[in-house]
Structure formats: C-alpha cells, structure tokens
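Before surveying the methods themselves, it helps to consider a single example record, giving the amino acid sequence and backbone structure tokens:
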Amino acid sequence: LPTSTVTVTPNNPVFTGETVNMTCVIESYSNWRYEWYKGNRNNRVMLPTSNRYTVNGDTLNIAKAISTDAGQYWCKGQIDGRPKSSHFSSAVDLTVK
C-alpha cells in the first residue's frame, strides 16, 4: 500500500487563535479522497468537519486553534470505487499554547 505523510504549517507549537494547515502527501496515484483522524493509535476517530475543521483536497484546515485541538493526527487516502487505500500516515503531534 502507498504510504502517506503529514506536513504541518505553522511549525509546532501553534498558538491559540492561529490557523493550522495539515497536508496529506501520498506517493503514487492521484485522485485520493483524504480522511483525517485524531486520537491515539488504538482509538483513531475520523474528524467531523465543522466551521473550524475544513478539508480542501489534501489539506485539513483548523481555524482559530484552541487547546482541545492539541493531540495526534493522522491522514489516510481512499480511492472511491476501488478497494484501494493508503497506509495511515505516522502520527503528527499538534501542540497548542
């Protein structure tokens, strides 16, 4: 399976009120549908989109970061209509100060 990697801007730590962008990079193929998860390795929960969490293509945007946004994030890709997905990315730790 293809591997995925998450890049984050700005660099950790993020300050309260800042906007955070996480980009999911998956080798090979294009037309992925990106899924974002938060939690820990044994309990990853798919992120619900909201007015603060928006997904635009391969990028998760967190508006006005608050302390509860801190934690571990993963991404994963799915190709619709095909039994193909990527591996989970390694975890990205987000710190909000």
About this structure: Residues 74 and 91 are 5 Å apart (CA to CA). The beta strands are 4-9, 20-26, 33-40, 43-46, 53-56, 59-62, 71-79, 84-85, 92-94. The chain has a mean pLDDT of 91.
